[in-house]
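Input record (one chain):
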Amino acid sequence: MNALNFLKHKSKVIFLYEDYSVKRSMDEFRVSGFTALPILARDGRYVGSITEGDFLRFLLRYELIDMAETEYIDLRELPRQSDNRPITVDARMEDLMQMAMQQNFVPMVDGRGIFMGIVTRRDILEYFQKKLC
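The corresponding structure, as predicted from the sequence alone:
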């Protein structure tokens, strides 16, 4: 089995661009319903991930009451506590499983660091559940 078999293609993944304003990012994040999203550069490179906790810490740290202020701050300027580490398309299943135990999604990139999509922990667990039943 290859890690690529679990890939949810970029076209089916909600992600943010690093040059989005914090306001736009928070709006899209809220609508997504997820607790973390990938962040991409405009050239398609994976640059990290953002969590709802990152947004909350940002707002509390800078005591922003007027959300209009966040329209003038790029997402790339927002401090993030940690990023979901990516795997490459040729990753071993053992590596994917190890990373999925630590993060709820694992970004997949090609050899140039271009974002291809994600592998979710849920998809891996559903696959193995079907195999067991």
